[in-house]
TrEMBL record:
The chain crosses the membrane at residues 92-114, 135-155, 189-209. Keywords: Membrane, Transmembrane, Transmembrane helix. InterPro entries: Clarin. One of its GO terms (biological process) is positive regulation of lamellipodium assembly. It is found in: Membrane. GO terms for cellular component: basal part of cell; lamellipodium; microtubule cytoskeleton; microvillus; plasma membrane; stereocilium; trans-Golgi network transport vesicle. Belongs to the clarin family. PROSITE patterns: PROKAR_LIPOPROTEIN (PS51257). This is Clarin 1. Pfam families: Clarin-2. It is a multi-pass membrane protein.
Length: 232
């Protein structure tokens, strides 16, 4: 492939990586990771609520990685209040998983920025046949994709397996018990998914530019001369 087309492909990949970095930064700071509805089970059982009456006992909840908002419904109207994970809910939630989600989200942001720099350096600079060249592009793209997958797996397990919404809803509740009525992942979670897919797209763009996947060369092919051999 001509060098000019390679530069165009690397520029496109760099712009996509930078867009991912901005989106990840926005996702980390919002409370739109999950939306759900919480049933006041105790209140509904007391009046034997069914059908439309049950709606009076179903509140709403939404939260992100650091804070959220909840509307408590127990038959007497909604009472909204905001909460934060640190330090309020730190002893209630699965803290190790939640902190891991935050750390991997920050790592994904950093790796996306590094990936952007490498793509732009390969487009306009004179990279070497080591981590500055196509091997580095493959490496950072794969690491970014892996971080995105870990974030989604950990957050999903925190919500579904450890019942995060119920733990938040029952925090400091004395006589009332709340159960999850429904919940779905919100915008920020899907942003992480889209960014992970973008990193896979970047890997395909590198291959389209004419560079073989790592470890795909035959054993008898000549090895690169290291940092002294120019890629272009």
């Amino acid at each position: 492939m001509p060098a000019q087309q390679k530069k165009v492909l690397f520029c496109v990949a760099g712009v996509l990586s930078f867009a991912c970095a901005l989106s990840i930064a926005a996702a980390i700071g919002t409370q739109l990771w999950l939306r759900g509805r919480i049933l006041c089970k105790t209140g509904a059982l007391l009046v034997n609520a069914t059908g439309q009456e049950l709606e009076k006992f179903i509140g709403e909840i939404q939260y992100g990685l650091f804070y959220g908002e909840r509307v408590r419904q127990c038959g007497l109207g909604g009472r909204p209040f905001r909460f934060s994970f640190f330090p309020d809910l730190f002893k209630v939630i699965p803290a190790s998983i939640h902190v891991s989600v935050i750390l991997f989200s920050l790592a994904l942001l950093v790796f996306a920025l590094i990936e952007t720099g490498f793509f732009m350096y390969n487009a306009f600079g004179k990279p070497y046949e080591t981590l500055h060249g196509p091997l580095g592009l493959y490496l950072w793209s794969f690491i970014s994709f892996s971080c995105g997958c870990l974030i989604m797996i950990l957050f999903s397990s925190e919500v579904k397996i450890h019942h995060l919404s119920e733990k938040i809803a029952n925090y400091k509740e004395g006589s009332f018990i709340f159960k999850t009525h429904s919940e779905q992942f919100a915008n920020s979670f899907w942003i992480i998914l889209v960014c992970s897919l973008v990193h896979i797209l970047n890997i395909l763009l590198i291959r389209l530019a004419g560079f073989e996947f790592p470890f795909s060369k035959s054993k008898d092919s000549e090895t690169a001369n290291g940092a002294v051999d120019l890629m272009y």
